[in-house]
Design goal:
single chain; about 260 residues; alpha/beta; TIM Barrel; eight-stranded parallel β-sheet; 11 helices; binds 1,3-dihydroxyacetonephosphate
């Protein structure tokens, strides 16, 4: 059985002090809820202080991106070796990095591979744009993105891979995919591609999250879908109460 996950992607929100205050406020609320993995992904600069604040808890940290190379002349970038020992997870391929930083399918694949090579677990984000959705290209785009992202990643490595389906039109818009839409793509396209690439057993063992305006009000209906294993949450993860609530709702929705 797949262990659910609730991951907060803070994007460019919260100063170091605000991040530490969040960690202090949340740690007694969500520590020890071992039936679900709880992950917070603050800005790079807040990672060391948050790691310290969360010491002794089972709340995991993630980074929001990683460079494709281990080191080099890449001003402003952060590499996998720099994140080793600091985070367990790293988001790669988030649509905002694809859109604003020019990250390509090939880059996402390189980022996932270098993360895995350094003991970091990639959360591979993917999903179609509004134009692609309206043009009826959702299935084809998602199938292409997932296959490209996983190129050369081995069956053994898949145990450390998490996938997040985030339709771009649902991110930060307040307009979530319906549970049926999300289930159809996650189960019918993404998990199907995993079965084709790695076989049914690995496809059934791989966690696939939904992201895009997930919040306490819609968390239950999304989480009861059989193929949705959790959430990658932006806005609603910034607030201690709503993040805690979504974790509790997810545990209940999965009957844990
Ligand atoms: P929102 O939850 O704010 O829509 O953001 C989703 C997201 O992009 C998480 O990575």
């Amino acid at each position: 059985m797949r262990k659910p996950m609730m991951a907060g992607n803070w994007k460019m929100h919260k100063t170091i002090a605000e991040a530490v205050a969040f960690a202090e406020a949340i740690k007694n609320r969500i520590n020890g809820l071992v039936s679900i993995d709880r992950v917070v992904c603050p800005a790079y600069v807040a990672l060391p202080a948050m790691k310290q604040a969360l010491t002794g808890t089972d709340i995991a940290l993630g980074a929001q991106d990683v460079h494709t190379q281990a080191q080099g002349a890449y001003t402003s970038c952060i590499s996998a070796p720099m994140l080793q020992g600091l985070v367990d997870y790293v988001i790669v391929g988030h649509s905002e990095t694809r859109q604003y930083l020019g990250v390509t399918d090939a880059d996402v694949n390189q980022k996932a591979k270098i993360a895995l090579a350094h003991g970091l677990k990639p959360i591979i984000a993917m999903g179609e744009s509004l134009e692609q959705n309206e043009a009826g290209q959702t299935e084809a785009v998602c199938d292409r993105q997932i296959r490209a992202a996983l190129d050369g990643i081995t069956s053994a490595q898949m145990a450390n891979v998490v996938i997040a389906y985030e339709p771009i039109w649902a991110i930060g818009t307040g307009k979530n995919a319906t549970p049926e839409q999300a289930q159809a793509i996650i189960g019918g396209v993404v998990r199907k591609a995993l079965a084709d690439l790695y076989g049914e057993e690995i496809a059934q063992a791989t966690r696939i999250l939904y992201g895009g305006s997930m919040k306490p009000a819609n968390c239950h209906e999304l989480m009861v879908q059989p193929d949705i294993d959790g959430g990658l949450v932006g806005g609603a993860s910034l607030d201690v109460e709503s993040f805690t609530e979504m974790i509790e709702i997810a545990i209940q929705a999965k009957g844990l």
